[in-house]
Amino acid sequence: xxxxxxxxxxxxxxxxxxxxxxxxxxxxxxxxxxxxxxxxxxxxxxxxxxxxxxxxxxxxxxxxxxxxxxxxxxxxxxxxxxxxxxxxxxxxxxxxxxxxxxxxxxxxxxxxxxxxxxxxxxxxxxxxxxxxxxxxxxxxxxxxxxx
Length: 147
Known about the structure:
This protein has a five-stranded mixed β-sheet, with helices on one face. Strands 1-7 form a two-stranded parallel ribbon. The protein starts with 17 loop residues before the first helix and ends in a 6-residue tail after the last strand. It is built from three helices and seven strands, in the order H-E-E-E-E-H-E-H-E-E. By secondary structure, the protein is an alpha/beta fold. Helix 3 (117-129) links the parallel strand 5 and strand 6. The protein is elongated, with a radius of gyration of 29 Å. The chain is 30% helix and 17% strand. The chain has a domain at 49-141: Nucleotidyltransferase, domain 5, CATH 3.30.420.270.
């Protein structure tokens, strides 16, 4: 009796791709949820244009001065990090709390292009009187002149 051995059968290794696809999708979801997104403020204003506008790396608070009616002294709405300020004393309190939390706080002021300079100077003076000496004024990058 002779046993016939077949040498035609080869062992084929297969790689199941489903676990790898699952892990890949889970990593994508993890990085999407854990990454920080640049969020524009929800207060619609029109910024002035400047040729020397630079990017701020890190800011602790954004104060937005909107043009129009309403807000402190009815000169226009004022927002501190998207929270509406109803009186100048409230802005002073928010700035003082920021100064107490972080003595080297950086405040970005976003004035609408139609806001009187007097209001901008008032806010900067208030911050300066409270000891906040690091602040910037937001502007859009100016378009290069046509030649």
